[in-house]
Design brief:
The protein has 274 residues and is an alpha+beta fold. The chain contains 6 helices and 13 strands. The protein is 20% helix and 30% strand.
């Protein structure tokens, strides 16, 4: 599973960066991919060109005037799609493709049915209260989609534009409640690399220094998480790492590094003894 903010195609030699990204995605061959800042225009769908015909692409609703939005793509058959637009959340101006998109897939054994949720909240540094509201709305949305299917594994992924110590991410990972609600999602990076900062947006990347947030410190803001409960997640991370976190032939693919996670079923179901 992979999440990657592409950095909009019209910036910084986008066509050349596209080639680098396509090669890396082909090498990794992830089963499910969440892409942000993906461009779709008449005659050009960036995600389709990056991933090829083996993937079914589900676009987020809404896009900027220059065609930038987000999408979720799967190599496994998609059986259902549910969409929650977040543009109506109080304060959520400035991101027309803020949304949570839930895609249910029929994965091969040993996974079985899985629910993937691509969450994209607002990005402004001083809008954590908006991200909190969006997190609560998205979490309630997921609970409605899951319903009484308590054994359905849920993978939550995307560019959350918030660090692990932020209120919104603390809410997602079960370390605090918001608006009278609490949930528990386990962060694949924290599962496998608890002592590694794992910054995905950092001024060490020259595209960050040249962008609209040149002075922000390195931050980990891109995530793959798995929904849990009283006894832990229904999937665990076997491996998690950064993607495109160094230049290729002198070219940086994006101002974000991607996050790749290899998920598996735990040795026995949570809540049961072996």
């Amino acid at each position: 599973m992979l999440t990657l903010n592409l950095f909009a195609h019209q910036h910084a030699h986008g066509a050349r960066r596209q080639l680098v990204t396509r090669r890396e995605l082909s090498r990794l061959s992830p089963d499910v991919v969440a892409l942000q800042e993906v461009t779709r225009l008449d005659g050009f769908h960036q995600a389709a060109e990056l991933l090829g015909p083996a993937y079914e692409v589900v676009d987020h609703p809404g896009a900027s005037e220059d065609g930038v939005g987000a999408c979720l793509a799967s190599r496994w058959p998609i059986s259902d799609v549910e969409v929650l637009e977040l543009t109506g959340v109080p304060g959520s101006w400035g991101l027309p493709w803020a949304a949570a998109v839930a895609v249910e897939v029929a994965a091969p054994e040993p996974w079985g049915q899985l629910l993937f949720v691509h969450h994209k909240p607002n990005h402004q540094l001083d809008c954590e209260v908006v991200r909190e509201r969006e997190a609560v709305e998205a979490a309630r949305f997921v609970e409605r989609v899951v319903g009484d299917r308590h054994e359905l594994p849920v993978v939550l992924l995307g560019d959350f534009d918030a660090t692990p110590d932020s209120a919104g991410v603390r809410f997602w990972t079960g370390r605090q409640s918001l608006d009278g609600m609490s949930v528990r999602y386990d962060d694949a990076w924290a599962m496998t690399r608890p002592d590694d900062a794992g910054h995905t947006f950092t001024p060490l990347n020259p595209l960050v220094r040249a962008g609209t947030m040149p002075s922000t410190p390195g931050r980990r803001i891109d995530y793959v998480m798995v929904r849990g409960g009283s006894h832990g997640p229904l999937l665990e991370a076997a491996e998690c790492g950064l993607v495109l976190d160094r230049p290729v032939d002198g070219l940086w693919a994006s101002d974000h590094f991607g996050v790749y996670a290899d998920l598996r079923r735990p040795p026995h179901p949570p809540g049961q003894e072996a």
